[in-house]
Amino acid sequence: MALAMDRGELAEFLDEAFPQVKGDFAIDALDEDELVVRLKVEERHLRPGGTVSGPNMFALADVGIYIAILARIGRVALAVTTNASMDFMRKPAAGADLIAKIRVLKLGRVLAVGDALIYSEGDDRPVARASMTYSIPPRAMG
């Protein structure tokens, strides 16, 4: 499937639609098979014990799968998460960005399913895995 939005358009949309996360995420790569998105880890993303917090890893997966879907369907701000499952496998490094490799597994008219594998930059062992389903709102008839 051809992409409806490129990296620049996705980054611009994310900044416009979700200014509360502006600057937190960067899109490293995008093609028909995979999106690679990064959480630029700062002190505020850490929890006691010197590791990236679970909510920040969840946000990376959620934002990553969301924009991977939008890359395929275009600007649909009201696509929403309807189901999420996350497995935390090992402690991420505090001094490294988190990298999520995102795949859209199914893209239908109403539902989309995506998968994220999250890594600490520089380590090829995943720290977390997420599977999420999104509801895609009906397109306005025109």
Automatic annotation (TrEMBL):
InterPro entries: HotDog_dom_sf, PAAI_dom, Thioestr_dom. Keywords: Hydrolase. It comes from the Bacteria. Residues 49-124 form the Thioesterase domain. SUPFAM superfamilies: Thioesterase/thiol ester dehydrase-isomerase. NCBIfam families: unchar_dom_1 (TIGR00369). This is Thioesterase. It comes from Thioclava sediminum.
